[in-house]
Amino acid sequence: MRLSIIVPVYNNENTLARCLQSILRQSFRDYQLILVDDASTDGSGLLCDRYVQADHRVQVIHKKSNVGLSEARNSGIRKAHGEYITFIDADDYIAAGTLEALMEILMVHHEYDMLEYPVWERFGHPRRQHRLQFKATAYDNIDDYWFRCKAYLHSYACNKIYRTALFSDVRFPVGRKFEDIYTLPQLLSRCNYIATTNVGLYYYCYNPAGITAKASGSDLNQLLQAHLPIVGKLHAIDPQYTNAHAATYYAHVLNIQLDVYERLPHCKLSLPVLPYRSTVKLQLLNLLGLQRLCRINKLFHQITGKHRS
To answer: 280: Cβ–Cβ under 8 A, 6 or more apart, which residues?
Structure first.
């Protein structure tokens, strides 16, 4: 079997059929489809059972209690028998022909351990939906993929196909928000080749009740903590602090720290101050220090009534 597709399901009665039909209508057929019903309280569980009865490739795991997205994915990984794994969320879907196009690439390039494909981000949002495109590029250097391709901005578990062996000792962290950003660096450290492609399309549908849209200060602090181990390695990666891509990444993490302080002002400041100065904000960081910059940023937003989205 070439591919295992894992779909976590929790109260997705209104979108599950759309998701599953987008998979079952794919021209590529050599897969197992693993549905993980995370103790849904709507009709999702019954809908999963109907698809199991209708197609032998579909399996379902019914959880007796709600375990959360990470453990739902982990349960699917334990049942996966395919050479490759991909994840599709139950409120999302994929375009026709996506799987065939991606698996053809992997048939030609056996060396690829992970393949990332285009995604409509926040699809359905009236103002912020955005189609994220990639060039057909192969990376044999993890740092190039992380910094130059800005993988940290699209660290989704979905819109990627992984060699199943990468998950031999990697699982999604249970009980954490933004679990993707914790897991992707671990998977990348086990990759020899990572590739991006311009074929296929994942529809990451906007959900106003989702984790990202409703992130609290504590949630954002978990996101910050996930980035800190990588920030801690920047000196080894960029000892002169002159790499523009590394500076852009550091500025991104600084913005997360500013958001955390704004929502949790008594939370301990975690971000180390590094001598990047490529933006005004980074220059102010080195001039004023992190705590003062956090205070000024918060005061500015209080005065202007503006907050970063």
So the answer is: none
Report how far apart, in Å, the C-alpha atoms of 21 and of each of 33, 93, 167, 306 are. Answer: 12, 8, 27, 41
- Residue 274 CB neighbour total at 10 angstroms: 19
pLDDT in tens, the chain (309 residues): 999 999 999 999 999 999 999 999 999 999 999 999 999 999 999 999 999 999 999 999 999 999 999 999 999 999 999 999 999 999 999 999 999 999 999 999 999 999 999 999 999 999 999 999 999 999 999 999 999 999 999 999 999 999 999 999 999 999 999 999 999 999 999 999 999 999 999 999 998 876 665 788 999 999 999 999 999 999 999 999 999 999 999 999 999 999 999 999 889 999 999 999 999 999 999 999 999 999 999 999 989 876 554
Name the percent of the chain in helix, strand, coil, to the closest 5. 40, 15, 40
Task: Name, in order, each residue with C-beta under 8 angstroms of 85's C-beta and a sequence gap of 6 or more.
Answer: 3, 4, 5, 6, 77, 161, 162, 163, 164, 167
Pairing of strands 119-123, 114-116: unpaired
Cα separation of 301 and 304, whole Å? 5
Return all residues near 67 (Cβ < 8 A) that are at least 6 apart. 38, 39, 75, 174
- Could you give phi then psi for residue 291, rounded to 5 degrees? -65, -45
